[in-house]
Structure to design on (465 residues):
């Protein structure tokens, strides 16, 4: 391999998030989170583990319900250019891709594409941005200079994420609706192989640092699949845990390790990257860990807490949380971008964090295997209860009650897998304030089947009284 080719591959590897030996987090580096409820991108200085401010792409809920609303909605996915000068933020509610200058935090342009895009990334040469359109069946190819869609690449319905091998020849696409991975020839712009995998719902994939494997998460069944990037075959599948979200890799003194966010257990699980991955540790973190990315030198892992509205910073030497940084509401994707701000403070065009801290309530079954959790957030003039229910009867209605209230605050119908989630928005502030365990007399949440009145003895799920 020539020196020039080796240098190019190293640069591309860093741009794709594979941790390499290098400097510890620097003041010029940035960690970004896509905050779905507040419609912001939070900007963190990883050297000081502090929030610098937010890039506001839209209004927080419930302002977005206005028919005259013009901002971005459900800021969800993130990606960045090989030169680390451009961040993209994908909003699945407004079908948009915002192009952000990392040095100035200024939105350079916005591309509007197909229904419900999820994640996107720059090609290895930086000349195109590919964004999966999860609500349809294609990848939208965008010119980052003009911010216009130039073509569409057909895929399996519901593509969840795309990532490019640094050699530049192949792209890997997971699906959110079908149990397959599409392998795309980048130059030909077509699927050249389709791999069968463990389940139909994968939100994320990432390469090992040597790029010999790509790991994909299966959120619905709590597993990870490992794919050989040379043979284009599935190497293995292993169990990770309830609500497996994203995965990151770090080169450490103990070897290359994989860090997997397991949202339903509020932990990050650490696995070896041997031929047969084994559990090497479990790290307790905040509420519903989701996005995760490693610093370039592998010394830190950054974890977005979807229900904690914060980022936990893991020290890989001790595998413990070393810091917590507040961010926007419901952070989803998270990326670490080194040397994003080559000069200056890099705080232009940022606004202060406006959201208050959420209240998290775990739901437990008096009997059976049902699971659930609730997060309560202030949304300005109103509040929201975001309810997630699991392992209930399929296609069955359930009502959620708070304290002694005789009317439910929300009702949900489970899907064929016995799951349901949704948000109740309204003037609930007096109720929300009493949900906190620190309240003088905390009230109880209960979930009843159908329209049954509240009764702790018959409830299918209860919060701690």
């Amino acid at each position: 391999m020539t020196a020039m080719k080796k240098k190019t591959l190293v640069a591309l590897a860093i741009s794709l998030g594979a941790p390499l030996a290098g400097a510890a987090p620097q003041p010029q580096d940035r960690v970004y989170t896509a905050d779905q409820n507040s419609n912001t991108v939070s900007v963190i200085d990883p050297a000081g583990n502090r929030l610098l401010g937010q890039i506001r792409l839209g209004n927080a809920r419930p302002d977005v319900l206005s028919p005259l609303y013009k901002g971005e909605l459900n800021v969800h996915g993130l990606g960045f250019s090989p030169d680390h000068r451009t961040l993209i933020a994908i909003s699945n509610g407004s079908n948009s891709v915002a192009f952000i200058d990392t040095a100035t935090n200024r939105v350079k342009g916005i591309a509007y594409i197909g229904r419900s895009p999820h994640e996107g990334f720059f090609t290895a040469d930086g000349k195109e941005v590919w964004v999966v359109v999860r609500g349809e069946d294609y990848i939208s190819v965008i010119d980052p200079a003009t911010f216009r869609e130039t073509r569409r690449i057909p895929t399996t319905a519901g593509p969840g994420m795309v990532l490019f091998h640094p050699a530049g020849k192949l792209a890997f696409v997971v699906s959110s609706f079908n149990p397959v991975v599409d392998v795309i020839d980048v130059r030909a712009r077509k699927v050249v192989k389709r791999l069968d995998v463990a389940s139909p719902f994968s939100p994320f994939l990432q390469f090992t640092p040597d790029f010999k494997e790509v790991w994909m998460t299966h959120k619905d069944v709590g597993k990870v699949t490992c794919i050989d990037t040379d043979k284009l075959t599935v190497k293995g599948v292993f169990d990770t845990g309830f609500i497996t979200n994203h995965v990151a890799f770090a080169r450490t003194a103990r070897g290359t390790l994989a860090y997997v966010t397991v949202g339903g257990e509020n932990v990050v699980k650490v696995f070896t990257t041997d031929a047969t991955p084994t559990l090497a540790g479990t790290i307790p973190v905040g509420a519903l860990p989701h996005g995760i990315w490693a610093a370039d030198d592998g010394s830190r892992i950054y974890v977005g807490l979807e229900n904690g509205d914060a980022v936990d910073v893991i020290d890989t030497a001790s595998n413990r949380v070393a810091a917590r940084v507040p961010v926007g509401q419901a952070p989803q994707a998270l990326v670490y971008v080194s040397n994003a701000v080559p000069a200056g403070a890099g705080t232009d065009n940022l606004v202060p964090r406006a959201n208050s801290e959420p209240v998290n309530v775990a739901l437990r079954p008096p009997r059976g295997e049902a699971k659930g959790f609730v997060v309560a957030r202030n949304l300005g003039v109103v509040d929201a209860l975001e309810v997630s229910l699991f392992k209930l009867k399929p296609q069955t209605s359930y009502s959620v009650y708070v304290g002694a209230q005789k009317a439910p605050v929300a009702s949900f119908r489970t899907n064929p897998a016995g799951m349901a989630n949704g948000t109740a928005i309204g003037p609930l502030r007096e109720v929300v304030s009493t949900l906190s365990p620190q309240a003088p007399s905390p009230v109880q949440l209960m979930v009843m089947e159908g329209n049954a009145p509240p009764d702790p003895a018959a409830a299918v799920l209860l919060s701690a009284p």
Remarks:
- Residues 3-15 form the longest helix (13 residues).
